[in-house]
Design brief:
This protein has about 130 residues and is an all-alpha fold. About 15% of the residues are buried. The chain is about 55% helix and about 0% strand. It is built from six helices and no strands. The chain has one domain.
Length: about 130
C-alpha cells in the first residue's frame, strides 16, 4: 500500500512515450557524421548497434540524404561537408571507456565499410 494515496494513479497507469524510430535515429547519426566539423566515434558505434537490429546504410540512405540536404542550407554545415573525408579506420579514443556492452570482433570491419560508404555518399552529394 502506498503512503501517499493521491499518487496511486501515477504508479498504476500506463505512460505513453514518444520517441524516434530506429530508422530516424540512424539517419540522424549519418547526418551528424556528414555535417559535424569533427568526428564522433560514438555515431559509428551507434550505427553498428542499429545494424544488429537490421538497420543498414542502404535501407536509410534516402532519408539520410534528405536530412543532410536540409542542413546544407546553413553555410557552416555545407562547409563541413565540403571538407569532409573520413579515415577508414575508427579510433575509439575516450569513447571506448564509455561502452557498456563490448563491441564484438565484427565492429572494425563494419566501421571500415561504413566510413567508405560515407565517403562515397559525400562525393554523391557534392
Amino acid at each position: 500500500m502506498l503512503d501517499f494515496p493521491q499518487h496511486y494513479k501515477l504508479a498504476t497507469t500506463t505512460t505513453k512515450l514518444y520517441c524516434y524510430s530506429l530508422e530516424e535515429i540512424a539517419s540522424e547519426k549519418i547526418r551528424a557524421l556528414l555535417t559535424r566539423r569533427g568526428f564522433k566515434a560514438r555515431d559509428v558505434i551507434d550505427l553498428y548497434m542499429l545494424s544488429k537490429k537490421g538497420i543498414t546504410m542502404n535501407s536509410i540512405k534516402k532519408l539520410a540524404i534528405e536530412k543532410t540536404k536540409f542542413m546544407l542550407k546553413y553555410l557552416k554545415y555545407s562547409q563541413n561537408l565540403e571538407s569532409k573525408k573520413f579515415e577508414e579506420k575508427v579510433n575509439l579514443g575516450q569513447e571506448e571507456s564509455l561502452i557498456i556492452t563490448p563491441l564484438n570482433k565484427g565492429f572494425p570491419e563494419f566501421a571500415e565499410k561504413t566510413l567508405k560508404q560515407l565517403n562515397k555518399l559525400i562525393e554523391e552529394m557534392k
